[in-house]
Design brief:
heterodimer; A: 270 residues; mainly alpha; 8 helices; elongated; B: 258 residues; alpha/beta; Rossmann fold; 6-stranded mixed sheet; 9 helices; 36% helix; globular
Chain lengths: 270, 258
């Protein structure tokens, strides 16, 4: 009887601690996201760290984005050519590839690749810095870890993900072009003219806003998860996995929300 | 003086420190002993305000640091030179950049002056030859030495805090680190004094589970068990203690038979 009461008291205490941890975790996340962003315009500026992060995020991810985007564009064009041929609407392949890639697939695919490579790298690097007391050392030296570690990563993501998305979009369109022209035997001129037709301000704007939001989300989630690492190698594995999984879920969820807002704001009928 | 007044601290549901009260003068040479996970490192982190106690009060030179913000804590942290377990050198920087970190961050030293100062500090800790190496190329002993040099570059400390400075080191390297700890805290005397750092008569707190190493350097010993201090005394009292947990520690090190 006494043991049972002790157990339930312990469980109640655990529950209380978990709720407290969740609330303080959310508060810490918002503070980190905000302070990380504000750090871009406040001294001191860590230019060297930012350039290093941009190199890691941009140059290091370029090839993966290139390959993934190329095959996404080719697969999309292939699927559309097959389906549209049955309906006698093959000439719309370029237009649909263009809209899908520019407005939806390009930003999402680039963000997912970015989260998998750069986000995982951020979380594991910061996590290992936490476990190795390097972050504590920064604090002891009076250096704000958010300014030194988080702001350069947010800034590099804000700059690099949109750039990579533009490259990815172009590569996807070329992939789609290759399939449409050389496999599905469509007119090259018609493909590019239908792409040009969909390159309207609304479509480009809808596709251009997303990478900034995704980049910011990925950097904040992965930095926060990395900086909250606890518990040795297993804790590091757990935080890296959590960073990538949370980023992926947030990319998909925010993509839906952004699409809804942008379609409404840009006056697209739904 | 460092004063802990009824300090409680927990990690989630695990209570680490329970009603801890003690005081340490800056000139004292103190070893905090205890097994793994007993909260030794936690005490160091509380002293420099890296974590906050659940309850109780921590006072540094009469200044309550319990509820201070990061900016307010900077002044407090400058009073200490802390060397974390395994050195905590920045992986992406080489030895020179690690030691120069605070000089570049807070001083307007030219590159030549920085280089000179870094070499001077590395010479004091005896690893000048490692100046261009990356942290992963250093041995465990060199790691600790570079870390000590880096913490010396950060400030003019009133006290050194060492977190397991000899763990993972062979007996010779561990002995060398102990000698360095003693040299850095030796009473002021002109031949030892280099750049105002070596031999400032400053005290230290060393947290370790290696009683043998602690005995080489410290004058006062505190033993942590289950979040409480079960022993606080000098070397003689430690050797002659009848507390079973401490006797077990001594036996493991072949210092005292059961």
């Amino acid at each position: 009887m006494g043991q049972g009461r002790q157990d339930s008291q312990y469980l109640a205490k655990m529950k209380k601690v978990k709720i407290k941890e969740l609330i303080s975790g959310l508060q810490d996340f918002y503070l980190l996201s905000l302070r990380g962003l504000v750090g871009i315009i406040r001294k001191p500026f860590y230019l060297k760290d930012t350039i290093e992060q941009m190199d890691y995020a941009g140059a290091g991810t370029f090839l993966i984005i290139f390959l993934v985007s190329l095959f996404v564009g080719m697969a999309l064009s292939l699927q559309l050519s097959a389906e549209l041929s049955r309906l006698g609407l093959k000439m719309y392949t370029g237009m649909i590839v263009g809209i899908s890639v520019i407005r939806e697939l390009g930003p999402v695919v680039a963000a997912l690749v970015f989260a998998g490579r750069v986000g995982a790298g951020m979380a594991s690097e910061l996590g290992s810095m936490v476990l190795g007391h390097q972050v504590d050392t920064l604090r002891v030296f009076g250096v704000d870890p958010i300014k030194k570690l988080v702001t350069p990563r947010i800034l590099s993501s804000l700059l690099m993900l949109p750039a990579l998305t533009i490259i990815g979009d172009a590569v996807s369109l070329f992939g789609g072009y290759y399939i449409a022209v050389f496999v599905s035997h469509q007119s090259s001129t018609f493909y590019w003219s239908s792409i040009r037709e969909v390159l309207t301000f609304e479509n480009v704007f809808a596709g251009a806003v997303k990478p900034f939001i995704f980049g910011y989300l990925i950097a904040c989630i992965c930095c926060y998860t990395g900086l909250s690492t606890k518990g040795g190698a297993i804790g590091l594995r757990r935080s890296t996995t959590r960073a990538v999984v949370t980023s992926i879920i947030m990319i998909i969820v925010s993509d839906f929300i952004l699409t809804r807002i942008l379609l409404y704001a840009l006056g697209f009928p739904v | 003086m460092i004063l802990f007044d009824k300090v409680w601290f927990s990690y989630g549901t695990r209570q680490v420190l329970k009603d801890l009260s003690f005081s340490i003068e800056f000139k004292e040479k103190v070893a905090i002993l205890g097994g793994s996970g007993e909260g030794k490192t936690t005490i160091l982190k509380l002293i420099v305000g890296l974590i906050k106690p659940d309850s109780g009060k921590i006072t540094i030179e009469g200044e309550d640091i319990t509820n201070k913000t990061e900016d307010e804590l900077r002044g407090v942290r400058m009073k200490f030179s802390i060397v974390f377990q395994e050195g905590a050198l920045f992986d992406s920087l080489n030895v020179k950049e690690n030691v120069a970190f605070c000089l570049r961050e807070y001083t307007k030293m030219s590159e030549d002056e920085t280089d000179k100062r870094v070499r001077e500090l590395l010479q004091i800790v005896g690893v000048e030859e490692a100046i261009e190496l990356m942290p992963e190329e250093l041995s465990g002993g060199m790691h600790r030495r570079v870390s000590i040099a880096r913490s010396l570059a950060a400030c003019e400390p009133k006290m050194f805090l060492y977190d397991e400075p000899t763990s993972g080191l062979d007996p010779i390297n561990a002995d060398n680190i102990c000698k360095l700890i003693l040299e850095l805290s030796a009473p002021p005397s002109p031949p030892l004094s280099k750049g105002g750092i070596k031999g400032g008569g400053r005290g230290f707190i060393i947290v370790t589970h290696k009683v043998f190493d602690a005995m080489k350097v410290a004058d006062r010993f505190m033993f942590l068990k289950d979040g409480m201090i079960i022993f606080d005394g000098n070397k003689g009292e430690l050797i002659n203690t009848t507390i079973p947990e401490i006797q077990l520690f001594m036996v493991e090190l072949n210092l005292k038979p059961l």
